Amino acid sequence: MRLLFVASEAYPLIKTGGLADVAGSLPEVLRQQGMDVRLLLPAYQHVLESIEPPEFVADMEVDGTALRILATRLPGTELITWLLEHPVFSQRPGNPYHDHLGQPWPDNADRFALLSRAAAAIATGTAGLDWRPEVLHCNDWHTGLAVALTHLSEQRPRTVFTVHSLAHMGLFDRETFDRLRLPAHFWSDSALEFYNQCSFIKGGLVYADYITTVSPGYAREICEAPGGMGLEGLISQRRERLVGILNGIDNRVWNPATDPYLEHPFSPETLDAKARNKAALRASLGLAPAEDRPLVGLVGRLVEQKGLELILPVLESFLELPVQLAILGTGEPRYEQRLQAVAAAHPDAMAVVLAYDESLAHRIEAAADIFLMPSLFEPCGLNQLYSLRYGTLPLVRAVGGLADTVVDTNAQSVADGSATGFVFRRPDAGELLAAMQRAAALWYDKQSWRQVQLTAMRQDFSWQQSANRYLQLYNDTA
Hints:
The chain has 21 helices and 18 strands. It is α/β, with parallel strands linked by helices.
């Protein structure tokens, strides 16, 4: 079966979030399971500068615009990766979506319409290539338009559209819709129109043969308000075509026994070595060598979605429990500044690194006792899966993929051996603090803590299981 997998980013070539982890893992696993896969990405300037000169595949033209397709292999894999070359991608440095001030590129509609048109042309056989997919799998708003455009052709492939987050819908005004010269019938509330704007994500939601989300929990949540963010009516109508498939993780990259970023690799059999990673991290971040208190890690975007409004009111109370806190990420200036201020007042107990640092992310996962992830909403979440693999017990709110993957630690779950972390339900700072108090108390019960750690490390969230679900779905669209 031939599959064209289209995304706006893929690790390790380009990454801003979880979409890149999925696009950098799932297509390769599907290839290993026998599919003939092509991954299609924009040829961003950063990507072209980071790889060996790619091979020329073809020149093509879509809607009067000349494009070039180049080919490389996704680093570390045998996956054929096609790069769509055009100046709007290839001659622009920096972030794929926004400028250095955090403002969206003003031509984002044109750029990702171009990616979608190219994907649709390849998928419908009008691109002049000698390879045409049977299945087109698109991801998030950047490629939603591609699914809609395939419906203009009699040679339409089977289509799957994955929602990684409804928070980003690709909304543009009517003037932009007209400038893109999209078919007039697309301007309808049963097509792309959304409260007098054009929504690229609706192209996938309305027209795909199957819609998937990145966890079963998120599939349920987006069928209702507020999770559906105004699209719950449409999504509920398509419920029979909606499937929640939990994201996986790359066990080669996230493996504490072989992780090249760790000074002291460890496994369930050598779990005591985790303490040496903690000591090394404390030293590198300037934290006190406090062996009598647990270390809490947080890695991610410092934005409201990730629960910063829950964390900040109880941050001082966390440190009084007592725990130490190591935070890595970037985000909204108000959150960055507040976290830095608390860390400056408690330099022995709290460290904040405002950066994207893959090495430090791995070292925090390996060193921390508890991983903090109190998201307001979380379509899947990957850090809690990394944490489980590293024996770092996640503390999460019961939403989306977090609720699907973490079993709360209580008397019953400890007794039956199912506990893997700590879960609270309401988006309430007091409930978060109570969950942290439970976690800190259990940390002093070394026997129970070790039992929960080992249960967490035995969980299997590899991509192989998720890929099998996608294979079934591709066949069901036939």
